[in-house]
Amino acid sequence: MAAASQASGKGTRRVSDFPAPAGGIVSVTTTTTLWKAVEILSQVNALCAPVYEELASGERQFVGVLDVVGIIFYLLDSLEKELSEAHGAVDNDRPGSFAGWLSESKALRTLVVKDIIDSPRWLPFVCIEETAMLSDAMALLGRERFHRVLVASDKNVKNIITQSSVIKFIFDHHEDFASVTSKTLEELGVTAPKPVVSISIDDCVVSAFRAMKDNHVSGVPLLDENGAVVGCISDRHIRSVLLKGSSRRPLHQILAMSATEFLASLPPDHARHGDMHPAIICKASDKLGDIIKKLAASRIHRIFLVDEHHKPIRVISLCDIIELLLAAEEQVEHALVA
Fold first, then answer.
1. Whether the predicted model's global pTM rises above the 0.85 cut
2. What residues contact residue 203 under an 8 Å CB cut-off, 6+ apart?
3. Strand, coil or helix: what is 94?
4. Per-residue confidence in pLDDT tens, the chain, 338 aa
5. In Å, what is the CA distance from 131 to each residue of 49, 101, 151, 158?
6. Of 136, 151, 224, 225, which sits 20 to 30 A from 329 (CA to CA)?
């Protein structure tokens, strides 16, 4: 078993080896208003925050994680109503930022964080100790499909390990995973067709968000008139709308934009992150290591396997890749035991 850990390079590593965010972990209470929570996340450019309750003893009890994607999914019906009411309205009569819209909405300004994390649609969270092995975190992120894992010590959240950070780790230590990353998708057996939720290049942004929410996916490809993949709108764009929307245009204008217009309007830093073809596609003959390199460089969470006409066959997600690596390690361990 020890030999397997040394061969894989990750069995001997602990979650404490992952560096914590430079600014630390920002947390919010269950009683924080939703608009204030969004404002806090925006100020520190954070994508999520652990949520805690203050106990009578004065201690904090963590009860969930607030994520900006979950916020917009929870409020999507209200956002669509905002878009409908804004049709033909004077732009400067409406707040530009998402936090501003929440704070001025009579129906929503009193919402607190607890209202959302108690929702049946809200994703569960998981917490592990600093002493846990990296493989334990990978099992939760890959096999169990958690988006993130909280790392705790002395009843405090010390770090948040995400699927993206694990992929970055794999890329930085690719030599430890060569037995898997040197193989093609076809060799790894992950090319079987699966349904792909998609939208047209002419569909509006709010339609893309609705498709993601209704189908429980974190990104949808944009298809041209021939059904070929030409771009992608993802949960990262949702975060952009919530945290940075006021820097470009009012919220309702962003929601009404076509998908292609929206992607074209993004700042240059988004453009290099793989929103458009070819960063978001791959072929069955591509090696897993090359795909990991592409994902790590572009910071996207999925890549679309396409045919010779660039029509989507299936999605290859970060979960899929992490699960492949876990399965490979288990095969090595079983072989050693045998």
1. no
2. 258, 259
3. coil
4. 333 333 344 557 888 888 887 778 899 999 999 889 988 888 887 888 999 998 888 888 898 899 888 888 888 877 777 667 765 444 444 555 677 777 777 667 788 999 888 776 666 788 999 889 888 999 999 999 898 999 988 778 989 998 988 998 889 888 888 889 999 999 999 999 999 999 999 999 889 989 998 998 989 999 999 999 999 998 888 777 766 654 456 777 788 889 988 888 876 655 444 555 556 899 999 999 999 999 988 888 899 999 999 999 999 999 999 999 888 776 655 554 45
5. 22, 42, 9, 12
6. 151
